[in-house]
Amino acid sequence: MAQSMEYRLGEMPLSYPEIEQYFKRLLFYLEATEKNEQAKAVLLATCGESAFNLVEELIKPEDITKAGVTFKSIQDTLLEHFKPKVLLHYERHVFHSTVQKDAESITNFVARLKQQANKCQYGELREDLILSQFIFGLRSQNLRQKLLSKGTLELNDAIQEGLMTESIATATDKPETIANVQNAGTFSRPRSCSAQRSVSFKQPQGHLHNQSSGKPKGKTAKCHTCGKSGHLRSACRFREAKCHKCGKVGHLATVCRSKAMNAIQRMPSCSPSPGNTSSYHLELIHAVRQPKTGYSDQWFVRCRLGKTEVNMLVDTGSQVTVVPDQIAKSSGLELQPVSQKLRSYGGFQATVTSVIYGAKLQVIGGKSASENIYVGHDTTAILGMNFIPSLDLVRMDQAVRVSNEHKCLPVVRDQNSNFIASFRLRSGVSMEGMRFPARSLPFSMKSMVETELRRLLASGIIYSVKNPTVAAPIVPVVKPEGSVRPIRLCGDYSMTLNRLIDVDKYRFPKMEEILAKIPNAKFYTVLDLEQAFLQVALSPESQELTCISTHMGFFAFRYLQFGISAAPLIFQEIMDEVLRDVPFTASYQDDIIIGTPEDSAEKHMQLVRQVKDRLANCGFKINQRKSQECRREVRFLGFILRDGGMHPDPARMEAWKRLPYPKDKDQLRSALCTFRHYGVFCKNFSMIARPLYQLLKKGVHWSWHGKQSEAFDKLKSIIAGGVITAYDITKPLYLICDASKDGLGYVLAHDPMQRQVVWLGSRVLTPAESNYANIEREALAIVEGTRYFYQYLAGRKFTIISDHRPLQYIFNPNKVSERVSARIQRWALLLRAYDYNVMYVKGEKMYAADTLSRLPLQSDSADQKINLLEINALEGFGNSEQLLQRIVRTKDYKLDMLKKYIQDGWPAYPPPAMLPYARNKLEYTLQNGVIFKGLRIVPPSSLRSEILQMLHEDHPGIVRMLRLSRQYFWWPDIDAQINAFVQRCVQCQLHARKRSNANLSSWPETKSFFERVHVDIATFKGQRFLVLVDHFQNG
């Protein structure tokens, strides 16, 4: 019986509407076999393995075997899961944008209209609206005018008229010329007459004014089509133009003599304020009014307007309300002249005589509201959307919009006094298209990502999400060796959440505001919070927006995360709330400053303990290692605070004051260029710098002595005191970054010319970094600059200035280029946590950044850098360590040239032998002597045959061998070489010939449970399962 049911019903289809048909057939089957009481068992026994697993997932945490889980509940759950959500207003927009396509028949056009109308829930207005859109969407201008001229018209009559016209045009082999109806059926204004092209059209009969086709009478005769002279009307290029005044074809509005408007109802699009003279367009669902065919009473509402009562047609497609002029006059309300140019659906200009500002309209027996009402010549009163929501007449369907689904809630506290934050979002921003798939990861990194995801799940920081609306791909950040956790997972929120957040809703305090809270302080304490952002919980609505997509599925964060543009600003708002009533205390992000005016350390520490208790009660932890407690002098935001005053922090210019002496003329020339740029701060600059300029003279050998050192040190000291300025949150920020073969230089300034410097920094390149390509060194300078000045840049809009033009496009904050090296791609993803733009300037205008990069500071303890490419690039491929060593040691003259080009830049015309490598020049990376193209190694020519042998070790065939090679290696024509290699393999060819004649075999029968178990790994909804099947039970 079970096999019979499977044969008749088949497995359950996992798509809509097929699954709905499946349940209909299943209900008939249960009724025919009288098995209604066993409906659940029949369904689960015959639905198939995939459907069974899906039902289990959807029913959780309920147990599918329990009696509480019924057939009806399973059916409803599955249909709700697969049935697509209908966006009513979107479907109506699609319906009213439907027009007849080129070469589309009337029959097909009507079929498309009816199919789309079925999705719009128009009710009894369905036939009328289909007729309206059928007329507006026709290609034939003549047929449209013919249908509009009829007083009463049914849909079937209009279709028959169109079919007859189409048949006549086909039979006579003279198809009528179709008028160019600009954007027919859409919500935009028609193109102006001056923009119409001269096209040959058939002249409509009976719709033209002054159809004189004779020659002009003398030189002053004017054309009745355009109003100009010098040509015949029959030759006028506006002969088939459409009049914007009367809507007819054959003349322009400047010569129109018609006083009557088109019979189609024309309504205004909005409710402007008095005095507004702008031009408005209707963006509404428009209905064609038929005088002899009334609407159903259920669409009319009896309302009171002033002294009179009126039946009003409820039109959810109209954005405004319009009443006839007779009703407006009898209402006793004051009518004001209207100067707006209003257009209805289709682009026609509407006839509106006046407007009633702030008119009160009350539904008889219901609510009342006040809005603007327009007055026109139409006989039907239209109740539009400016009144409908306030009168509670129609339930609004929920749209996929930020403003409706996710409300902007303030920061609140839970019962444990912990803060729960919510994102403030821009209103009206759509979330459609913000669910991105997971990015591919190297095999060596997948295990690290999986381990970190399991840790985050176990600790409750993240939780699994089944079907998110918004999902951002992850950016794995590898930490230095010896870290507690080798990797940190960040979401690329620049593609999702950062586009939704309204950053303007937040603000940072100014330095003057902070100092005003700690006046005349004698003792200071600076508290640094540990992992501040990660201690802030998010509301359920905001948690959904932090969703990330991984190869293990979708996950959402319960706490605030790095990479969210508003995270620093949200935390600032929380700190302001925490310390609101605490005296002599202020905060800037995760740094809290306490300054007491009493000259008593004991009283100061009492306040410090009070602040610590307040922070502990709110769930925040303090980083004691970075805190400064009970001191006379502290560093805070680039300043030294002491005795109630603020002084510049000498550390801001440390990189400048410790600038080493130049070692050659190129370094000296760069330093003097910068000194000269800042010469405005230095009197007698030329006299002081004379010993330095003497070394640059032609024929003078390099010889650095005491007078050069004295001049160099004096210029550094004078300029340092002139260019340094206080950080001002109200001024724009510029991050100027440059790199050389020796080091990196980065300057934070309030102006692009670097004359209002906030901070300077530099460092030498590590041996590995010195082998980077030139573009990678320039990119590294930007990344290091953002890290160095993170406290100033986080949460602020700033401009990155670089002298390397390609970075202006590679580091585009809206899109990461895939045609660059993996290292630069990873850096670009890290930068997307900031709000920035990139500006290119010439190298000669980099000034301080250029000098700092050529004369960088020697770092005492350079941070250990971990690169993505260093993590077992050949893990899982043979003897990976030995092969990597051979790749490094083996000489290859082409790869030697490629290494030189990577480090020094490509020539304009590379030699012919290097052309295959030059196609994707930005994708190459040099790491520890190994060349990478993306994440794939480029091996020497002498090892490529051996690598092909290793790839073909198990005779995988062409397709699998190509897939395997693309995980590890690349060289020119590798695909063609693999194809030829497999073709030459005797075993592969013999196996391929025998494959078609192979006999199918089956597993032997089993006689008891668990005699043979089949095991496999399956992936379902982003989760991996170990599947065990007993052959005896399921064979």
UniProtKB/TrEMBL annotation:
Residue segments, region Disordered: 196-221
GO biological process: proteolysis
Domain CCHC-type: 222-237, 242-258
Bias-annotated ranges (Polar residues): 196-214
Keyword Metal-binding: yes
EC number(s) given by UniProt: 2.7.7.49
Gene3D superfamilies: 1.10.340.70, 3.30.70.270, Acid Proteases, HIV Type 1 Reverse Transcriptase, subunit A, domain 1, Zinc finger, CCHC-type
Keywords: Endonuclease, Hydrolase, Metal-binding, Nuclease, Nucleotidyltransferase, RNA-directed DNA polymerase, Transferase, Zinc, Zinc-finger
Domain of life: Eukaryota
InterPro entries, sorted: Aspartic_peptidase_AS, DNA/RNA_pol_sf, Integrase_H2C2, Peptidase_aspartic_dom_sf, Retrovirus_Pol_polyprotein, Rev_trsase/Diguanyl_cyclase, RT_dom, RT_RNaseH
Name the UniProt record assigns to this protein: RNA-directed DNA polymerase
